[in-house]
Amino acid sequence: MIEMLNVSKKYNNGITAVNNLSVKIEQGEFVYIVGPSGAGKSTFVKMMYREVKPSSGTVQVGKYNLTTMKEKEIPLLRRFVGVVFQDFKLLPKLTVYENIAYAMEVVEKSPKVIQKRVLEVLDLVGLKHKVRMFPNELSGGEQQRIAIARAIANMPGVLIADEPTGNLDPDTSMEIMRILEEINNQGTTILMATHNSQIVNDIKHRVLAIENGRIVRDQQEGEYGYEI
Ligand code: ADP
Ligand code: ADP
Fold this sequence. Notes:
Layout: E1 2-10, E2 16-25, E3 30-34, H1 41-46, E4 56-61, E5 64-65, H2 74-80, E6 81-85, H3 96-105, H4 111-124, H5 140-152, E7 158-162, H6 170-185, E8 189-193, H7 197-202, E9 206-211, E10 214-219
Parallel strand pairs: 3-8, 3-9, 6-7, 7-8
Antiparallel strand pairs: 1-2, 1-4, 4-5, 9-10
Helix pairs in contact: 3-4, 3-5, 4-5, 5-6
The structure holds adenosine-5'-diphosphate (2 copies).
Residues 11, 13, 15, 17, 35, 37-43 line the site of one adenosine-5'-diphosphate.
């Protein structure tokens, strides 16, 4: 599903954020990305949806070769890779319905398909009753559930979550995890960068530990493994 081979990313300021990294992730896996701040976790996941272009090496995500991909093909990749952020990034002037529908309109889904799917993903995250609300009328946890619903609306093969529980309390974080688990059980590959040691240690999955832009540990059913 995902294969990186000898991938490096050197930013314009001279910092090498990812250093000759290779990894293979199979379809349907749930993978935590852990490591200290500045280790290169964000850069690593951003390369999977071409938010960051690698300086060298090859990145394959599904059928997409991100190294040879042309700019105009990026929208196709973005349908295949859904993304969820720590700060939700919902559009404040749009309702819950419109936020999700918008993600489907840009890929030219018909209004009928959109309507059905928006309600389906809202049901999956348990927020069908909030469909007419605006983001600022929702709690942080609810906003993140909407962001997840939006990210999966186009049925991506891969879901990337960069610190999805970073702004949430422990109970709310667990709710988010239950939803991500369900999405994963339906076959979506999930990569989650996180500092949440309790989640990593309680809900066991493969752990990739990154330090100084390299994978220093790759462990099935792994542990968080850092003092905080
Ligand atoms: P995290 O992913 O750890 O939550 P960020 O991705 O916001 O945090 O930033 C991680 C580090 O990258 C920080 O030290 C930040 O200062 C640095 N950083 C982010 N964007 C830039 C940039 N455009 N130029 C230089 N450093 C940056
Ligand atoms: P993490 O997510 O593990 O905190 P990042 O990938 O955000 O790590 O950052 C890795 C390194 O790359 C840090 O030294 C950071 O300052 C640097 N960095 C991140 N984003 C940028 C950027 N846009 N421009 C320059 N340097 C960056």
